[in-house]
Amino acid sequence: MQKNIFENTTFIKVAAVVISAVVVALALSSPFIIATVVANDGRPVVVVDAGHGGEDGGVTGARTGVKESHLNLQMAKLLAEYLKGGGYRVVMTRQNDTMHTFPSVRDNKKRADMFRRGEIINSVKPSAVISVHMNFYSASSRRGAQVFFDRRDDGGRQLAVIMQDALNRDFNMAGGGRKYSALSAEKYILFCSPYPSIIVECGFLSNPFDEANLIDPDYQARLAQTLYAGVNDFLKGNDNSAVE
Ligand SMILES: [Zn+2]
Prior knowledge:
Blueprint: H1 2-29, H2 31-39, E1 45-50, H3 68-85, E2 89-92, H4 109-124, E3 128-135, E4 146-149, H5 154-172, E5 183-184, H6 188-191, E6 197-204, H7 208-214, H8 217-236
Helix pairs in contact: 1-2, 3-8, 5-8
The structure holds zinc ion.
Residues 51-52, 58, 68, 133 line the site of zinc ion.
């Protein structure tokens, strides 16, 4: 009797170990299961997309020659830190000064890079996508931060309005400039997934005041804090945007 019980217990233990090993092996071999496990850790996922990178430097600072791709990555990393501190899981579409490749697109580096970004976004099913860019305009007097969304993306529109309002309050009007309205735009990063997505053009590298600010680490940190507050308000359902 004792012996039988012992044998049964051993059998159950062995069976449990075998089943666990099979589950782990399946999880490791199947991207679908891994994605599900990651998405189910309880924290909302936010994708932070640092625009451009590698050979695609974006626009260039009129006075300093700073590359947009460099500033985008600095801002994206700062925003990612604030989001992590706020309890979000962050996925960045790039963490280095590089362009992605994409297996089926070999003749167009920019398109391959964008397709890979789209693939990353769709694979993690984020609650929000924030694409960070710097602007440039022929008239050097234009300055300030602007937010764009896809007109078919209701969540993106809502996030854009909240974000634009936060940027108007903390930067555009606080800096003595004009306020902007969030605008729709036809951009791949905005329509490549069904998740709420915006582009934030943090300021104009064609404007001397914006350029000086955007390369200043203290200004970058304050800007990242406002971007974080905008995303957080959207995801927590706090709409503080002004009624026009
Ligand atoms: Zn850009």
